[in-house]
Please model this.
Amino acid sequence: MGERNHGLFIFGQGAKAMHEIIWHGRGGQGVVVAAHMLGEAAYLEGFKGVTATPTFGPERRGAPVAASTRISREPIRTFSQIDEADITVVLDETLLGVVDVLGRQKKGGLVIINSTQPPEALPVGGEYDLAVVDAAAIALKNHLVREGAPVVNTPMLGAFAKASGLVSLENIERALKAKLSREQVDRNFTAVLGAYEKTILRRRT
Model:
């Protein structure tokens, strides 16, 4: 995996200095872990400023939770909560009817959703770029299960890499190696690759 992943978008290649990402999921899905792993991968990618924090919500299993990642070409001097994200990642599509996910997403930005539905079936307007992947099926295929539920946070890193172009597959793998055992890395990175390949894009109109 030595080649750089340029992704479908060019968020990481333009003049924009900082990218603000909000992760939405439910307690037990590893939302905070995903935010931190993205930060690690971004640091390895060469971003000089990286922060990853929980933003709101208790970590009760099944309860809506969120986390944020900021990645910047320059050192970060902003540590407040993200008001409007450049990119929103949704680990559980049922949250679209529970949480105002798009209320904190910039128009013209990117929304990435774990869903079995095609992009046109989701309630995300044409003013957003939308990427969709069935991360749950990919997790189950790779035996990523916790307490009977698919672990979708690492597959969603693959979808993020494909849709945003901000981090490479190589550096996601390196971030996984820093956090997981060899066996866990192999299964999780296979899921990352699967999600990368299966991500479907709908560009904004």
